[in-house]
């Protein structure tokens, strides 16, 4: 059984998933990047290019040493940069939490878990393959299912709707709070605080 993040080691790795470049910045698939940007603002630092293939920021979050990372690869190739960054900082999978979009949750809902399947998420599939394990933490941000017969692959690459954008800053802030809770209090406490009743 993997340890809770608070006991995972000297520092933890927090990864946000998305696609690089301005064309994708507002996409539903990029919620991980938006949450990491909020965490970076809380730390008070800027991301810098790292040789592992990610933009990284080292700092302290709620008293813990953390490394924030946004892979510079496209979503379905996230595993390489995540694994390289984890190796560089000597962080084991139980010290890793990945923030990502989740089709199977209603918009704005949050679920935190350790391990499990990837639910067809290519970013998670790539990370699991590169790490050789599924036993890392996930912070799942609900984006809801596509309307009608829209292909989910098209839906995730569309920007949030006008209605969703109105609530987006609040939802991003709440997701960042959930990541902080996971880092400081562990999985069970974070789940109790942030899972919908």
Automatic annotation (TrEMBL):
Protein name (record): Peptidyl-tRNA hydrolase
Gene Ontology CC entries for this record: cytoplasm
Oligomer status and interactors: Monomer.
Residues involved in tRNA binding: 24, 74, 76, 122
UniProt cross-references to InterPro entries, sorted A to Z: Pept_tRNA_hydro, Pept_tRNA_hydro_CS, Pept_tRNA_hydro_sf
Record Gene3D superfamilies: Peptidyl-tRNA hydrolase
The keyword Cytoplasm is annotated on this UniProt entry: yes
CDD domains: PTH
Pfam families in UniProt: Pept_tRNA_hydro
Active site: residue positions: 29
Reactions that this protein is recorded to catalyse: an N-acyl-L-alpha-aminoacyl-tRNA + H2O = an N-acyl-L-amino acid + a tRNA + H(+)
Recorded family membership: Belongs to the PTH family.
HAMAP family: Pept_tRNA_hydro_bact
Role description: Catalyzes the release of premature peptidyl moieties from peptidyl-tRNA molecules trapped in stalled 50S ribosomal subunits, and thus maintains levels of free tRNAs and 50S ribosomes. Hydrolyzes ribosome-free peptidyl-tRNAs (with 1 or more amino acids incorporated), which drop off the ribosome during protein synthesis, or as a result of ribosome stalling.
Compartments it resides in: Cytoplasm
Organism annotation: Amycolatopsis arida
Positions bearing the site annotation: Discriminates between blocked and unblocked aminoacyl-tRNA: 19
Residues at the site labelled Stabilizes the basic form of H active site to accept a proton: 101
GN (gene name): pth
EC code(s) of this entry: 3.1.1.29
A biological process from GO: rescue of stalled ribosome
Keywords: Cytoplasm, Hydrolase, RNA-binding, tRNA-binding
GO MF annotation terms: peptidyl-tRNA hydrolase activity; tRNA binding
Record SUPFAM superfamilies: Peptidyl-tRNA hydrolase-like (SSF53178)
């Amino acid at each position: 059984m993997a340890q809770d993040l608070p006991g995972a080691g000297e520092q933890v790795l927090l990864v946000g998933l998305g696609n690089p470049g301005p064309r994708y910045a507002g996409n539903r698939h990029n919620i991980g990047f938006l949450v990491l940007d909020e965490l970076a603002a809380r730390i008070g630092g800027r991301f810098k290019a790292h040789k592992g293939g990610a933009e990284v920021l080292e700092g302290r979050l709620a008293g813990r040493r953390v490394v924030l990372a946004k892979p510079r690869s496209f979503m379905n190739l996230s595993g390489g940069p995540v694994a390289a960054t984890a190796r560089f900082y000597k962080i084991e999978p139980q010290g890793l939490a990945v923030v990502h979009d989740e089709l199977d949750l209603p918009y704005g809902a949050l679920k935190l878990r350790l391990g499990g399947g990837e639910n067809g998420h290519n970013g998670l599939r790539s990370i699991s393959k590169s790490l050789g394990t599924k036993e890392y933490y996930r912070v799942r941000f609900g984006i809801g299912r596509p309307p009608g017969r829209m292909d989910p692959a098209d839906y995730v690459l569309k920007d949030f709707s006008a209605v969703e954008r109105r609530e987006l800053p609040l939802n991003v802030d709440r997701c960042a709070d959930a990541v902080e809770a996971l880092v400081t209090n562990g999985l069970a406490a974070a789940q109790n605080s942030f899972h919908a009743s």
